[in-house]
Amino acid sequence: MTATGRRAELAGVAALTLGALALFVTAPTYPNYDAYYHLVWGRELLDGVTPTFEAYKAPTQHPLEIAVAAVLGAVLGADADRAFVLIAVLSLVWLAWAVYRLGARVLGPWPGLAAAFFAASSFSLLLLAARGYRDVPFLALVFWAAVRVVEAPAPAAPVPPPLARPPGRDLHVAGLLVLAGLLRPEAWILAGLFALWRRSAWLLAAAAAAPLIWAGVDLAVTGDPLRSLTGTSELAEDLGRERGIAKVPGAFVTFVFDALRPPVAIAAVAGLVAAWRMLGWRRLVVPLALLLSGVVTFVGTGVAGLSILPRYLTVPTVALCLFAGYAVAGFTTLPAGRLRRLWTYGAVVVLAGGLVFAVARLHVVDRLTAELAFIDGTHRDLEAILHTPEVRAGMACGPLTFPNYRLVPDARWMLDLPADRVGSRSARRRPYGAAIFVVGRKALRRHGFADGASPLTNVPDPGFERAVRRGRFVAYVSCP
User: Fold this and answer.
1) CA 221, CA 72: separation in Å to the nearest integer?
2) Is the CB of residue 92 less than 8 Å from the CB of residue 136?
3) CB 113 within 8 A of CB 328
């Protein structure tokens, strides 16, 4: 890459970063359920308390997320939740940068730029970033590892023996995949494939580090090294989520089309075929490894009986953005001639169709804006009611309870309370204390009702009297 091209790349990344920071400040959002639990667990570690992995409906623990939560909690205190979101938002910028670098190296600069645009503009990824999901930092780590692989200089000597120390670039790739493997287990497969490809016992040992650390944390906290696997499967069954291998094929197509949008998904299939024919599979080995490993992992979730969720397809979805980029901009890599002209006309047709689709889907922007406002408003309403004198008085008589598990970690974080002081009425009804109820159609649908919980938990029990309302929440109190 020329110096001018490098400066243009860095200027683009700087502009994206500034835009992301501006959105973070002007449209504040807060973490999701899983992230708030990890913040709580990080605080428990700082307090010298065993993390409550086995709390009612608690999510699966992810070691690196807990470590980051503990560090943020130690440095920022109560503001650590917003820092979680900031990390995810900036990670989306870093992911787009990595997709560009990977695409530019393998497919060409303009296909790489188009691929980065498709990834960064995905509604699914934008929403994951806005809620502080671990998936976005995970993707950034995985795709930067892929960048390091494709940008490695061609070896000047035969492959070293398995016990030889691998070069620094390979260790860097392994380190990135180990970190990614402490956020999501999909990286375990990628790390293992990389070690086998490089024929290195050192890298194979590094690939084993993430699952061993994960199992070690489970063993130390719960006494069961497989708690994350068994607990995730049990939670999926309790919540009635789709599971099983029979659900995988239909879910795969649905999730990919929803995440990429139909025009981009169709372009990705066309781009994959074109890239295979024009460049050969050897040139595409890294993007194909990302795509196929993600598919294998998704199928594995069905075989293992885990929940079949769209988030489990994020790696292959972003990998498909690379091929979509090649479909719309691959002609720029061809010499002048008939094929380039035909491809250019086809790309114009595809882009025109995509533009029509985008105009027809402009309401998605309103949906995203409304969702961000709802998240912010719900957080502020909850914080306001939890700090009212009425709720404080009720909590002096008994625990704080919610209709179900959805807002339990949020409240535990806001009030810095242990598990026995904040609970869910879907798990156990309490005769005394402060009971929070949800009002409003969207708030009820999002927080008042939950899979596996009776809707009657959003109805006050006898003996509870209405005390105070703040926005979307009403508190009832009962004291002996």
Assistant:
1) 21
2) yes
3) no
Give the residue from 305, 330, 361 where a domain finishes: 361
Distance, in Å, from the CA atom of 317 to the CA atom of 284, rounded to the nearest integer, reads: 16
Helices (H) and strands (E) in the chain, counts: 20, 5
Per-residue model confidence (pLDDT) at position 163? 65
| Token pair recorded at residue 304 | 């293992």
Domain identity same for 412 and 467: yes
Work out the angle at residue 9's Cα, subtended by the Cα atoms of residues 5 and 15, and round it to the nearest 5 degrees: 145
Domain that includes residue 383, residue range: 367-478
Report the distance separating Cα 304 and Cα 214, nearest Å: 18
Distance CA 27, CA 22 (A): 8
Can you read off the two tokens belonging to residue 291?
Answer: 């795509």
Q: Would you place residue 31 in the very low, low, confident or very high pLDDT band (cuts 50, 70, 90)?
A: very high
Q: What are the C-alpha distances in Å from 467 to residues 49, 211, 393, 406, 438?
A: 33, 49, 10, 22, 14
pLDDT one-digit tens code per residue, 346-382 = 888 877 777 776 666 666 677 888 888 999 999 999 9
Instruction: List beta partners, residue 401.
Output: 423, 435
* pLDDT tens, position by position, 223-239: 989 888 776 555 544 44
Length of the chain: 480
Please, which residues have CB within 8 angstroms of residue 370's CB and are 6 or more apart in sequence? none
- Of 393, 395, 438, 437, the closest CA to residue 417 belongs to 395
299 by Cβ neighbours in 10 Å (0-12 / 13-18 / 19+) ranks as middle
Q: Which of 361, 377, 412 is where one domain is finished?
A: 361
- Strands 400-402 and 433-438 come out as parallel
Residue 403: closest CA among 378, 422, 383: 422
Write the CB contacts of 406 (distance below 8 Å, at least 6 apart in sequence): 33, 446, 447, 450
Going 289 to 294 to 296 to 297, the CA torsion angle's sign is positive
